[in-house]
Design goal:
Helix content: 40-55%
Number of helices: 14
Distance between the termini: 10 Å
Structural class: alpha/beta
Strand content: 15-25%
CATH topology of the largest domain: Rossmann fold
Shape: elongated
Amino acid sequence: MPLRWHILTGEYPPASGGVGDYTAQLADALAAAGDSVTVWTPGQSLPDRFGRKSQHVLQDALLSTPGILLLQYVPNALGAHGLNLPFCLWLRRIARGGADVRVMFHEPYFYFTIAQPWRNALALVQRTMASVLLGATKTAYISTETWRRYLAPRNGSSLEVLPIPSNIPPALAADAITRQRRAMAPSGQPVVGHFGTYGDHVERELLRILPPLAQRCATARFAFIGDGSSEFQSRLSARYRDIVARSWASGWMHAADVSAALRACDVLVQPYPDGITTRRTSAMAGLQHGVPTVTTLGALTEAVWVKSAAVRLTPVGDVNAFAKEVDRLLRDSAEAQALGARGADVYERCFSLERTLAILRGVLPDTP
């Protein structure tokens, strides 16, 4: 039976951001499944950033078209400098009045820190916000199993893992893949790729692994894919001109071109300082496309990555082990192909958008 959704999000296209892109993808998929979907976001359908005016608008909407209210929760995206406890209390109040409130925790809260003590007040209030939201819902969703450590269910509520799927639809045009491959490796060399946005933390990991990779995989070319890749390549030239000479950067690309570029790679390298998690859409894209992937095992890495063997794991910081695994896959095409196929299968069964829809539409009650 079709469901009715009111999705709340702090960002939504045309504004850029991972949560906004995810929300748009989810809304489109729910609508395609036959559900009725309204997305509420500041600056577009809401008059303020989840303040009193927004509460009145949402209250009227729920009265006129009752349905499931699903909050895409990132504490800082709620406004009030990350301290919007009043909105969380309002959600709990309407839930107690009978509204079906659901929360997707993309992030739980800031951590306590000695280095920046001023943030501890923020961390404390955000813990209260999370607790209030857990008290407002019978089913909360988490983007990674790791968040279960930080979010203790309350009042009989449960936590359901809802991995973040890839937002890069696979391209099927063989000529586009060939064209990308030719741009990356004009002489047919093996291609080692990375896909991402080249933020500070991942960039530091890349800078650690690229020198041993370049040395061990002496004939490989490097493909930097994604928005920010050209800027990363420019920064890289100041330290490693020899690596830049063997590299190609995509810059911003349409999704279909990103898909072709991913499939043109022999191996993807996706190092994360806290380890791979089900929140990493850059890693999900590689899995979905069947590209063998080498990544890092860190403090936030969930057990599913070890159990499924969907990727090749090396400990965070062990750059030599990382380079060795990449070299091994480049030398053994059968092993690389098997790893890519296994990754694609695990993605489809555990992490895909279809899996997300099955969880959301399967566990929720029918609405009038």
